Amino acid sequence: MTSIERVRRAVRGEMVDHLPAQPMGMMFSARHAGIPFIDYTKDGRKMAEAQLKFAEDFGVDCLLTCSDPAREVIDIAGEGSVDWFVDQGPAINEERASLRDKLRFKTFKLPDPLGGGRMHDRVKSIEIMRREAGPDVSIVGWIEGPLALAAELRGVNTIMLDFGDDPQFARDLLRFTADVALAYAPAQIAAGADTIAMSDAAASLIGPQIYEEFLWPEQMRVMATLRDRFPHVLRRLHMCGRTDPLAPMMRELPIDIYEIDFPADLRTVRERLGPDKVIAGNVSTITDLLQGTPEQVYEACRRCHEICGSAHIVSAGCEMSPLTPPENLRAMMAYARDHKPGKLG
Q: For residue 343, what pLDDT is reported?
């Protein structure tokens, strides 16, 4: 069974040969391929090379195109807020946040995802992945969620204050950043992505009231629009950290796959999402994958499978360390190969 067929069948609740496995390996895949991560983030050809090798060598059920938080930021506002490093991804320097002065927001325009910038580089990488991997491999495109991009432009601490100090500005900014996502996703789909993941990591820093009032409506607008325009494309939600309190509202989003990070209480999330929602993740990237033994990783995968039931994809819910022992990743993949969705034995 091909990776794309395995994932699609799992999402539909149909029989598959074994559990899908989609660990998030960005820096790990670059390191495994011998590529400095700064090159991985700047050159879509090298990202494609690393992801193709990662999937082939470990049997991962997707090629993943996330890399760093600065693609949309740079294409919108330039590199002024970005710090670059030798062997890690670019980071946003909040002291130089692009939108530190709110008046600059009036000058922002939707970036062109095919305009030759960093957003276009990801699109080119997807084209390479699809050409090299063929039609049977799942490719996960990546867009920044409304709050994630707002925090990258404004500064995470500042946008949190905006919810109380200037709620209309916060709404306007979230609407703009959602529009960026809606402009970016179609270009990735046209290039060959069969799944679009929306990463809204900063969402775990807000409570249910702010989530429902400010962020959830824009997440819904993005995902509902993608559902209506591209019904053949899977929709995936990635929100790092403790998302337990947000799960009842998250359930209402038109999402096919929920990535649940290891700090979240998986039983609580499963209860709040319901038994039918596909959950990926919750194996610890630190105590299990990085610091544990292969036996410990295998057991962690079993625990997550037991809690999630048949609607499950084996993963960690967030990026694993580049220093993760390869034998630990192989133990995760072995668990997926050894088990069908409904069988824990």
A: 66
